[in-house]
Amino acid sequence: MLRHLGRRTFLDAKKLTIFANQERFSSDRTNTIILFVPQQEAWVVERFGKFHKILNPGLNILVPVIDRIHYAHTLKEQAIEVPEQHAITADNVTLTIDGVLYMKVKDPYKASYGVTDPEFAVTQLAQTTMRSEIGKISLDSVFKERETLNEKIVWAINVAADSWGISCLRYEIRNIDLPKAVRDAMQMQVEAERKKRASILESEGKREAEINVAEGRKQARILNSEANRTEQVNEAKGQAEATIAKARANAVSVALVAQALTRNNGMNAVSMRVAESYVEAFGKLAKTSNTVLLPTNTGDVSSMVAQAMSIYKKLADTSTSNTVQDKDKDVDAFITEELSKVKEEFPESKLQLELETERHKDDIVSKNFKRSS
Protein backbone atom coordinates (compact mmCIF):
# COMPACT_ATOMS: atom_id res chain seq x y z
CA MET A 1 0.00 0.00 0.00
CA LEU A 2 2.89 2.40 0.83
CA ARG A 3 4.50 1.69 -2.55
CA HIS A 4 1.24 2.56 -4.29
CA LEU A 5 1.01 5.86 -2.43
CA GLY A 6 4.49 6.91 -3.49
CA ARG A 7 5.44 10.17 -1.75
CA ARG A 8 2.53 10.10 0.69
CA THR A 9 3.61 9.80 4.23
CA PHE A 10 2.54 7.10 6.64
CA LEU A 11 0.28 9.61 8.40
CA ASP A 12 -1.62 10.23 5.18
CA ALA A 13 -2.07 6.50 4.70
CA LYS A 14 -3.43 6.12 8.22
CA LYS A 15 -5.84 9.00 7.69
CA LEU A 16 -7.04 7.41 4.46
CA THR A 17 -7.71 4.12 6.24
CA ILE A 18 -9.67 5.73 9.07
CA PHE A 19 -11.93 7.70 6.74
CA ALA A 20 -12.36 4.94 4.15
CA ASN A 21 -16.09 4.70 4.74
CA GLN A 22 -16.55 8.44 4.58
CA GLU A 23 -15.04 8.53 1.12
CA ARG A 24 -18.25 7.04 -0.20
CA PHE A 25 -20.08 10.21 0.78
CA SER A 26 -17.31 12.50 -0.37
CA SER A 27 -18.08 14.40 -3.52
CA ASP A 28 -16.21 13.69 -6.74
CA ARG A 29 -17.62 16.84 -8.25
CA THR A 30 -15.09 19.39 -9.47
CA ASN A 31 -15.23 23.11 -8.83
CA THR A 32 -15.99 24.54 -12.25
CA ILE A 33 -16.76 27.99 -10.85
CA ILE A 34 -20.30 27.89 -12.27
CA LEU A 35 -22.24 24.92 -10.87
CA PHE A 36 -25.79 23.61 -11.29
CA VAL A 37 -27.00 21.63 -8.24
CA PRO A 38 -29.75 19.05 -9.06
CA GLN A 39 -33.10 19.06 -7.29
CA GLN A 40 -33.25 17.18 -3.96
CA GLU A 41 -29.48 17.33 -3.47
CA ALA A 42 -27.28 19.31 -1.09
CA TRP A 43 -23.56 19.98 -1.69
CA VAL A 44 -21.30 20.85 1.23
CA VAL A 45 -18.55 23.36 0.32
CA GLU A 46 -15.33 23.78 2.32
CA ARG A 47 -13.02 26.77 2.03
CA PHE A 48 -9.45 26.22 3.09
CA GLY A 49 -10.53 22.84 4.56
CA LYS A 50 -13.23 24.44 6.72
CA PHE A 51 -16.99 24.33 6.26
CA HIS A 52 -18.10 27.27 4.18
CA LYS A 53 -21.68 26.74 2.98
CA ILE A 54 -24.25 24.34 1.54
CA LEU A 55 -25.21 24.73 -2.08
CA ASN A 56 -28.95 24.60 -2.75
CA PRO A 57 -30.50 23.28 -5.99
CA GLY A 58 -30.00 25.62 -8.94
CA LEU A 59 -27.20 27.98 -10.09
CA ASN A 60 -24.22 28.43 -7.75
CA ILE A 61 -20.82 30.15 -8.20
CA LEU A 62 -17.64 29.14 -6.34
CA VAL A 63 -14.16 30.57 -6.14
CA PRO A 64 -11.69 28.27 -7.88
CA VAL A 65 -8.86 26.63 -5.91
CA ILE A 66 -10.10 28.08 -2.60
CA ASP A 67 -13.55 26.44 -2.52
CA ARG A 68 -13.97 22.65 -2.66
CA ILE A 69 -17.12 20.51 -2.88
CA HIS A 70 -16.38 17.98 -0.13
CA TYR A 71 -19.77 16.21 0.43
CA ALA A 72 -22.85 15.69 -1.74
CA HIS A 73 -26.01 14.35 -0.07
CA THR A 74 -29.29 13.29 -1.61
CA LEU A 75 -32.37 14.51 0.20
CA LYS A 76 -34.55 11.75 -1.20
CA GLU A 77 -35.85 8.83 0.86
CA GLN A 78 -33.43 5.92 0.77
CA ALA A 79 -34.01 2.22 1.35
CA ILE A 80 -31.16 0.52 3.17
CA GLU A 81 -31.04 -3.24 3.45
CA VAL A 82 -30.28 -4.37 7.00
CA PRO A 83 -28.24 -7.60 6.91
CA GLU A 84 -29.61 -10.67 8.64
CA GLN A 85 -28.68 -11.17 12.26
CA HIS A 86 -29.30 -13.63 15.08
CA ALA A 87 -31.52 -12.69 18.00
CA ILE A 88 -32.74 -14.63 21.03
CA THR A 89 -36.31 -14.25 22.25
CA ALA A 90 -37.45 -14.19 25.88
CA ASP A 91 -38.28 -17.92 25.69
CA ASN A 92 -34.75 -18.76 24.42
CA VAL A 93 -35.51 -19.30 20.74
CA THR A 94 -32.80 -18.21 18.30
CA LEU A 95 -34.13 -16.30 15.30
CA THR A 96 -32.49 -15.09 12.12
CA ILE A 97 -33.97 -11.74 11.10
CA ASP A 98 -33.31 -9.20 8.40
CA GLY A 99 -35.14 -6.08 7.35
CA VAL A 100 -35.32 -2.90 5.33
CA LEU A 101 -34.73 0.59 6.75
CA TYR A 102 -36.13 3.72 5.10
CA MET A 103 -34.19 6.87 5.98
CA LYS A 104 -33.79 10.44 4.80
CA VAL A 105 -31.14 13.16 5.31
CA LYS A 106 -32.79 16.16 6.96
CA ASP A 107 -29.62 18.15 7.88
CA PRO A 108 -26.71 17.90 5.41
CA TYR A 109 -24.30 19.62 7.84
CA LYS A 110 -24.89 17.08 10.66
CA ALA A 111 -24.84 14.21 8.17
CA SER A 112 -21.41 15.40 6.98
CA TYR A 113 -19.71 16.26 10.26
CA GLY A 114 -21.83 14.50 12.92
CA VAL A 115 -21.00 10.92 11.93
CA THR A 116 -18.38 9.28 9.77
CA ASP A 117 -20.69 6.93 7.82
CA PRO A 118 -24.40 7.70 8.32
CA GLU A 119 -25.63 4.61 6.48
CA PHE A 120 -23.35 2.25 8.39
CA ALA A 121 -24.24 3.88 11.70
CA VAL A 122 -27.97 3.64 11.10
CA THR A 123 -27.66 0.00 9.99
CA GLN A 124 -25.73 -0.98 13.11
CA LEU A 125 -28.19 0.90 15.31
CA ALA A 126 -31.11 -0.91 13.67
CA GLN A 127 -29.50 -4.30 14.30
CA THR A 128 -28.71 -3.64 17.96
CA THR A 129 -32.17 -2.21 18.59
CA MET A 130 -33.75 -5.22 16.92
CA ARG A 131 -31.83 -7.66 19.15
CA SER A 132 -32.74 -5.65 22.24
CA GLU A 133 -36.46 -5.52 21.48
CA ILE A 134 -36.74 -9.19 20.48
CA GLY A 135 -35.07 -10.23 23.74
CA LYS A 136 -37.99 -8.68 25.65
CA ILE A 137 -40.78 -10.73 24.03
CA SER A 138 -41.57 -14.38 23.33
CA LEU A 139 -41.64 -16.14 19.98
CA ASP A 140 -45.41 -15.92 19.66
CA SER A 141 -45.29 -12.19 20.39
CA VAL A 142 -42.74 -11.68 17.60
CA PHE A 143 -45.37 -12.71 15.07
CA LYS A 144 -48.29 -11.04 16.83
CA GLU A 145 -46.56 -7.73 17.62
CA ARG A 146 -44.63 -7.28 14.41
CA GLU A 147 -45.95 -3.78 13.78
CA THR A 148 -45.28 -2.74 17.36
CA LEU A 149 -41.74 -4.05 17.07
CA ASN A 150 -41.14 -2.01 13.92
CA GLU A 151 -42.41 1.15 15.60
CA LYS A 152 -40.11 0.66 18.59
CA ILE A 153 -37.08 0.25 16.32
CA VAL A 154 -37.95 3.43 14.39
CA TRP A 155 -38.36 5.38 17.64
CA ALA A 156 -35.00 4.16 19.01
CA ILE A 157 -33.16 5.01 15.76
CA ASN A 158 -34.65 8.53 15.59
CA VAL A 159 -33.62 9.27 19.17
CA ALA A 160 -29.99 8.31 18.48
CA ALA A 161 -29.77 9.62 14.89
CA ASP A 162 -31.12 13.09 15.63
CA SER A 163 -27.57 14.37 16.11
CA TRP A 164 -26.55 12.82 12.79
CA GLY A 165 -29.07 14.84 10.77
CA ILE A 166 -30.85 11.66 9.69
CA SER A 167 -34.51 10.78 10.07
CA CYS A 168 -35.69 7.16 10.08
CA LEU A 169 -39.09 7.02 8.41
CA ARG A 170 -39.94 3.34 8.95
CA TYR A 171 -38.46 -0.07 9.46
CA GLU A 172 -39.90 -3.32 8.13
CA ILE A 173 -38.96 -6.82 9.24
CA ARG A 174 -38.54 -8.77 6.04
CA ASN A 175 -37.71 -12.37 6.94
CA ILE A 176 -37.87 -14.33 10.18
CA ASP A 177 -36.09 -17.67 9.98
CA LEU A 178 -36.66 -20.25 12.72
CA PRO A 179 -34.59 -23.32 13.58
CA LYS A 180 -35.81 -26.54 11.98
CA ALA A 181 -36.80 -28.10 15.30
CA VAL A 182 -38.91 -25.07 16.17
CA ARG A 183 -40.53 -25.09 12.73
CA ASP A 184 -41.43 -28.76 13.09
CA ALA A 185 -42.87 -28.16 16.56
CA MET A 186 -44.92 -25.23 15.31
CA GLN A 187 -46.19 -27.30 12.39
CA MET A 188 -47.27 -30.05 14.78
CA GLN A 189 -48.98 -27.45 16.95
CA VAL A 190 -50.84 -26.04 13.97
CA GLU A 191 -51.95 -29.51 12.88
CA ALA A 192 -53.09 -30.33 16.41
CA GLU A 193 -55.02 -27.07 16.60
CA ARG A 194 -56.72 -27.80 13.29
CA LYS A 195 -57.62 -31.32 14.40
CA LYS A 196 -58.98 -29.88 17.64
CA ARG A 197 -61.15 -27.40 15.76
CA ALA A 198 -62.34 -30.13 13.43
CA SER A 199 -63.23 -32.35 16.40
CA ILE A 200 -65.06 -29.48 18.09
CA LEU A 201 -67.01 -28.70 14.95
CA GLU A 202 -67.86 -32.37 14.45
CA SER A 203 -68.99 -32.76 18.07
CA GLU A 204 -71.08 -29.60 17.85
CA GLY A 205 -72.67 -30.92 14.67
CA LYS A 206 -73.52 -34.23 16.36
CA ARG A 207 -74.89 -32.41 19.38
CA GLU A 208 -77.10 -30.21 17.22
CA ALA A 209 -78.31 -33.27 15.33
CA GLU A 210 -79.12 -35.15 18.56
CA ILE A 211 -80.88 -32.09 19.95
CA ASN A 212 -82.96 -31.82 16.79
CA VAL A 213 -83.84 -35.52 16.91
CA ALA A 214 -84.74 -35.31 20.61
CA GLU A 215 -86.81 -32.21 20.00
CA GLY A 216 -88.63 -33.97 17.18
CA ARG A 217 -89.34 -36.99 19.39
CA LYS A 218 -90.54 -34.69 22.15
CA GLN A 219 -92.93 -32.90 19.81
CA ALA A 220 -94.13 -36.24 18.44
CA ARG A 221 -94.83 -37.57 21.95
CA ILE A 222 -96.63 -34.38 22.88
CA LEU A 223 -98.78 -34.59 19.77
CA ASN A 224 -99.46 -38.29 20.35
CA SER A 225 -100.42 -37.68 23.98
CA GLU A 226 -102.71 -34.85 22.95
CA ALA A 227 -104.25 -37.06 20.28
CA ASN A 228 -104.75 -39.91 22.78
CA ARG A 229 -106.25 -37.54 25.30
CA THR A 230 -108.62 -36.12 22.70
CA GLU A 231 -109.52 -39.64 21.60
CA GLN A 232 -110.19 -40.76 25.18
CA VAL A 233 -112.24 -37.66 25.91
CA ASN A 234 -114.28 -38.13 22.76
CA GLU A 235 -114.72 -41.84 23.49
CA ALA A 236 -115.78 -41.10 27.07
CA LYS A 237 -118.22 -38.49 25.84
CA GLY A 238 -119.59 -40.94 23.30
CA GLN A 239 -119.96 -43.68 25.91
CA ALA A 240 -121.62 -41.24 28.30
CA GLU A 241 -124.04 -40.09 25.63
CA ALA A 242 -124.72 -43.71 24.64
CA THR A 243 -125.31 -44.68 28.26
CA ILE A 244 -127.63 -41.73 28.76
CA ALA A 245 -129.53 -42.56 25.58
CA LYS A 246 -129.80 -46.24 26.58
CA ALA A 247 -130.96 -45.30 30.07
CA ARG A 248 -133.56 -42.97 28.63
CA ALA A 249 -134.77 -45.70 26.29
CA ASN A 250 -135.00 -48.17 29.17
CA ALA A 251 -136.82 -45.59 31.26
CA VAL A 252 -139.32 -45.04 28.46
CA SER A 253 -139.77 -48.82 28.08
CA VAL A 254 -140.33 -49.30 31.80
CA ALA A 255 -142.71 -46.36 31.91
CA LEU A 256 -144.74 -47.86 29.09
CA VAL A 257 -144.90 -51.20 30.90
CA ALA A 258 -145.97 -49.44 34.08
CA GLN A 259 -148.70 -47.59 32.24
CA ALA A 260 -149.88 -50.81 30.66
CA LEU A 261 -150.25 -52.40 34.09
CA THR A 262 -152.81 -49.78 35.09
CA ARG A 263 -155.18 -50.77 32.32
CA ASN A 264 -157.90 -53.41 32.50
CA ASN A 265 -156.66 -57.04 32.66
CA GLY A 266 -153.05 -55.75 32.68
CA MET A 267 -152.16 -57.97 35.60
CA ASN A 268 -153.37 -61.09 33.81
CA ALA A 269 -151.28 -60.24 30.76
CA VAL A 270 -148.20 -59.71 32.83
CA SER A 271 -148.74 -62.98 34.71
CA MET A 272 -148.89 -64.85 31.44
CA ARG A 273 -145.73 -63.08 30.20
CA VAL A 274 -143.83 -63.96 33.36
CA ALA A 275 -144.83 -67.61 33.12
CA GLU A 276 -143.75 -67.77 29.48
CA SER A 277 -140.40 -66.17 30.25
CA TYR A 278 -139.84 -68.57 33.13
CA VAL A 279 -140.54 -71.63 31.03
CA GLU A 280 -138.42 -70.30 28.15
CA ALA A 281 -135.44 -69.60 30.42
CA PHE A 282 -135.51 -73.11 31.90
CA GLY A 283 -135.81 -74.55 28.44
CA LYS A 284 -132.59 -72.83 27.39
CA LEU A 285 -130.76 -74.04 30.49
CA ALA A 286 -131.66 -77.62 29.67
CA LYS A 287 -129.99 -77.38 26.25
CA THR A 288 -126.49 -76.74 27.72
CA SER A 289 -124.21 -79.19 29.54
CA ASN A 290 -123.02 -76.69 32.15
CA THR A 291 -123.61 -77.19 35.85
CA VAL A 292 -126.19 -74.67 37.11
CA LEU A 293 -127.31 -73.95 40.70
CA LEU A 294 -131.10 -73.52 40.87
CA PRO A 295 -133.46 -72.53 43.67
CA THR A 296 -135.28 -75.27 45.59
CA ASN A 297 -138.63 -74.33 44.16
CA THR A 298 -137.69 -74.41 40.49
CA GLY A 299 -140.55 -76.70 39.64
CA ASP A 300 -143.15 -74.47 41.25
CA VAL A 301 -143.91 -72.04 38.45
CA SER A 302 -146.94 -70.64 40.24
CA SER A 303 -144.89 -69.48 43.23
CA MET A 304 -142.41 -67.61 40.99
CA VAL A 305 -145.27 -66.01 39.11
CA ALA A 306 -147.00 -65.11 42.37
CA GLN A 307 -143.83 -63.45 43.64
CA ALA A 308 -143.48 -61.39 40.46
CA MET A 309 -147.16 -60.54 40.46
CA SER A 310 -146.96 -59.20 44.00
CA ILE A 311 -144.56 -56.56 42.69
CA TYR A 312 -146.84 -55.70 39.80
CA LYS A 313 -149.86 -55.65 42.13
CA LYS A 314 -148.10 -53.15 44.36
CA LEU A 315 -147.42 -51.01 41.32
CA ALA A 316 -151.04 -51.33 40.21
CA ASP A 317 -152.37 -50.39 43.66
CA THR A 318 -150.10 -47.36 43.80
CA SER A 319 -151.10 -46.28 40.32
CA THR A 320 -154.80 -46.64 41.10
CA SER A 321 -154.63 -44.53 44.25
CA ASN A 322 -153.02 -41.62 42.43
CA THR A 323 -154.69 -39.24 40.10
CA VAL A 324 -154.28 -39.47 36.37
CA GLN A 325 -152.18 -36.32 36.31
CA ASP A 326 -149.60 -37.75 38.78
CA LYS A 327 -149.37 -41.26 37.29
CA ASP A 328 -146.25 -40.64 35.29
CA LYS A 329 -144.35 -39.19 38.24
CA ASP A 330 -145.34 -42.07 40.54
CA VAL A 331 -144.37 -44.64 37.95
CA ASP A 332 -140.92 -43.05 37.49
CA ALA A 333 -140.27 -43.01 41.23
CA PHE A 334 -141.37 -46.59 41.60
CA ILE A 335 -139.21 -47.76 38.73
CA THR A 336 -136.14 -46.13 40.27
CA GLU A 337 -136.81 -47.79 43.62
CA GLU A 338 -137.44 -51.22 42.17
CA LEU A 339 -134.37 -51.13 39.92
CA SER A 340 -132.14 -50.45 42.92
CA LYS A 341 -133.65 -53.45 44.69
CA VAL A 342 -133.20 -55.66 41.65
CA LYS A 343 -129.54 -54.65 41.35
CA GLU A 344 -128.91 -55.77 44.92
CA GLU A 345 -130.78 -59.06 44.53
CA PHE A 346 -129.63 -60.27 41.10
CA PRO A 347 -126.14 -60.57 39.56
CA GLU A 348 -124.90 -57.97 37.12
CA SER A 349 -124.98 -60.31 34.13
CA LYS A 350 -128.60 -61.22 34.70
CA LEU A 351 -129.51 -57.57 35.22
CA GLN A 352 -127.85 -56.64 31.92
CA LEU A 353 -129.75 -59.42 30.15
CA GLU A 354 -133.01 -58.16 31.57
CA LEU A 355 -132.20 -54.58 30.55
CA GLU A 356 -131.50 -55.70 26.98
CA THR A 357 -134.87 -57.45 26.76
CA GLU A 358 -136.78 -54.49 28.16
CA ARG A 359 -137.20 -52.99 24.71
CA HIS A 360 -139.40 -55.99 23.71
CA LYS A 361 -141.68 -55.78 26.71
CA ASP A 362 -143.92 -53.15 25.28
CA ASP A 363 -144.82 -55.26 22.28
CA ILE A 364 -145.29 -58.41 24.36
CA VAL A 365 -147.45 -56.69 26.96
CA SER A 366 -149.55 -55.16 24.22
CA LYS A 367 -150.07 -58.55 22.60
CA ASN A 368 -150.95 -60.22 25.89
CA PHE A 369 -153.31 -57.41 26.73
CA LYS A 370 -155.15 -57.87 23.46
CA ARG A 371 -155.21 -61.65 23.97
CA SER A 372 -156.65 -61.40 27.50
CA SER A 373 -159.23 -58.85 26.53
Short structural description:
The chain has twelve helices and eight strands.
Order of helices and strands: HHEEEEEEEHHHHEHHHHHH
Taking all Cα atoms into account, the compactness measure Rg is: 64 Å
| Mean pLDDT value | 73
Major β-sheet strand ordering: 3-2-5
| Total number of domains | 3
β content, as a range? 15-25%
Q: Which structural class fits the helix and strand makeup?
A: alpha+beta
Number of strands: 8
Largest sheet: 3 strands, antiparallel
Low-confidence stretches: 1-25, 321-325, 345-353
Query: Treating each run of at least 4 consecutive H or I residues as one helix, how many helices?
Result: 12
What is the 3D shape?
rod-shaped
- Give the end-to-end Cα distance, rounded to a whole number of Å: 172 Å
Fraction of residues in helix:
55-70%
Pfam family, one: Band_7_C
Subcellular location: Mitochondrion
Keywords: Mitochondrion
Protein name: Band 7 domain-containing protein
